Amino acid sequence: MKNPKKILIIIQRSNGDVLFSLPLINALYEYYQQPKIDLLVNDDTLPLAKILPHVNFIHQFSYQKKRDNRWQQEKSLIKSIFRKYDLSINLTASDRSVLYALLAGKKSISAIEKNNKKSWWKKIFLTHYYYFDSTKHILLNNLQSLNLLKIKHDNIQQSPNISDMVIANVKDKLNKKGVKEFIIFHPSAQYSYKIYPKHLRDKLLASLNTLDVPIIITGGNSQLDTQIKSNIPCLNNIFNWIGETTIAEYFALSELSSAYIGMDTLNMHIAASQNKRIFAIYGPTKLSMWSPWSNDLQISATQDRPKQTYGNITILQADMPCVACGKAGCDDRHGKSECLDHISPEDIFNEVKDWYQNAKL
User: Fold this and answer.
1) What phi, psi does 293 have (nearest 5°)?
2) Taking the model in full, what pTM does it have?
3) Claim to verify: residue 231 and residue 345 sit in the same structural domain
4) 57 in a domain, yes or no?
5) Which of 116, 148, 180 is the last residue of a domain?
6) In degrees to the nearest 10, what's the CA dihedral of 352, 353, 359, 361?
7) 245 and 139 housed in the same domain
8) Chain CA centroid to CA 96, Å
9) Which of 48, 82, 103, 287 sits at a 20 to 30 Å CA gap from 300?
10) Strand partners of residue 9
């Protein structure tokens, strides 16, 4: 393929998917000698997309606008991308996102489903395609287009560079609290079925407090985060910063931290991209696609175990035959995940304590 001057990358999923597009963006930017790279993302991932490097412009898809006036949004979006790009790369296999790729790029690459009944037409019209593989880590899925383009790359999850001003602001906040070395504890997630129960979280925090190292509790401003914020116990070494950082400030805070403890969510993947020591608490999420990626070993977890460590990452799961089911809670309707009740806070604390005593922070 001749060097494309304009590239569109379509990422119509969650914040984690947007973060895991960064190695692809960087590789394309370097290999094709600084082309203009635009993104098409869901509007709820816009704050994260804005801090990715080498991005010229961001098109937004809104599910609210789809509900209000679907065709008006489609008309406007298609008009803004139609045949504007030399190359389009779609990281999601949905019909809509594949159509966007076909309409936007003179050449198009997309993930597609393995089910031929759903994807036969995609194989015909796309320039190149690859099968989206749910048994393979999202990072490796996202790098498939580089393989098709014969662009050499490492399987390294990268983190965006944060401005010196943002880093200085975060350091100033820490200094005002007298905090130097610290550990992040992130108790929240996008959905309630992924959240460690309060009574177990309180026991874990009480134990972590005895390490005599600052534990900074992080989170956003969602209803779930706000509820958790109001229930964090007041302890000497616990600093409740839920809702007090922007996404850019969180990247800086995570970079300055010594370790991450918490749920399987975007914040965990940020820590992994920065090669931090991670203690991840997993409920029903399947590990094959969404376990923390180890840059050092260039692997992720693939098998369920009550406790496993690879490189800088420790994952803790319940010892139950149903783990991990991949459902949205036991009822698959965003209800309670009973497996999270069966992860002992003592087991989590002992893993952290053993690391901390030998870490020489």
Assistant:
1) -90, 130
2) 0.95
3) yes
4) yes
5) 148
6) 100
7) no
8) 22
9) 48
10) 39, 89
> Which one-letter amino acid corresponds to residue 279?
F
SS (H, E, C) the chain: CCCCCEEEEEECCCHHHHHCCHHHHHHHHHHCCCCEEEEEEEHHHHHHHCCCCCEEEEEEECHHHHHHHHHHHHHHHHHHHCCCEEEEEECCCCHHHHHHHHHHEEEEEEEECCCHHHHHHHHHHCCEEEECCCCCCHHHHHCHHHHHCCCCCCCCCCCCCCCHHHHHHHHHHHHHCCCCCCEEEECCCCCHHHCCCHHHHHHHHHHHHCCCCCEEECCCCCHHHHHHHHCCCCCCCEEECCCCCCHHHHHHHHHHCCEEEEECCHHHHHHHHCCCEEEEECCCCCHHHHCCCECCCCECCCCCCCEEEECCEEEECCCCCCCCCCCCCCCCCCCCCHHHHHCCHHHHHHHHHHHHHHHCC
Instruction: Check whether residue 110 and residue 221 sit in a common domain.
Output: no
What per-residue confidence (pLDDT) applies to 119?
Answer: 92
The two structure tokens encoding residue 178: 């007298």
Q: Give the model confidence (pLDDT) of 133-180 as tens digits.
A: 999 999 999 999 999 999 999 999 999 999 999 999 999 999 999 999
Q: Left (φ > 0), alpha (ψ -120 to 50) or beta: where does 332 sit? A: left
| Cβ-contact 138, 290 below 8 angstroms | yes
Q: What would the pLDDT profile of 18-54 be if each residue is shown by its tens digit?
A: 999 999 999 999 999 999 999 999 999 999 999 999 9
As a whole number of angstroms, the distance between CA 30 and CA 142 comes to 17
How many domains does the chain fold into? 2
On whether both 85 and 169 belong to a single domain, the answer is no
184 belongs to a structural domain: yes
Report yes or no on 292 lying in a domain: yes
For residues 260 and 322, state if they share a domain: yes
Do 275 and 223 have their domain in common? yes
**Which structure tokens are listed for 303?**
């098998």
Q: Residue 60: which domain range?
A: 6-148
Q: What is the CATH number of the domain that holds 135?
A: 3.40.50.2000
- Cis peptide leading into 252, omega within 30 of 0? no
Q: Are 173 and 310 in contact, with CB atoms under 8 Å apart?
A: no
Average pLDDT over residues 103-110: 98
Averaged pLDDT of the chain: 96
Same domain, 179 and 327: yes
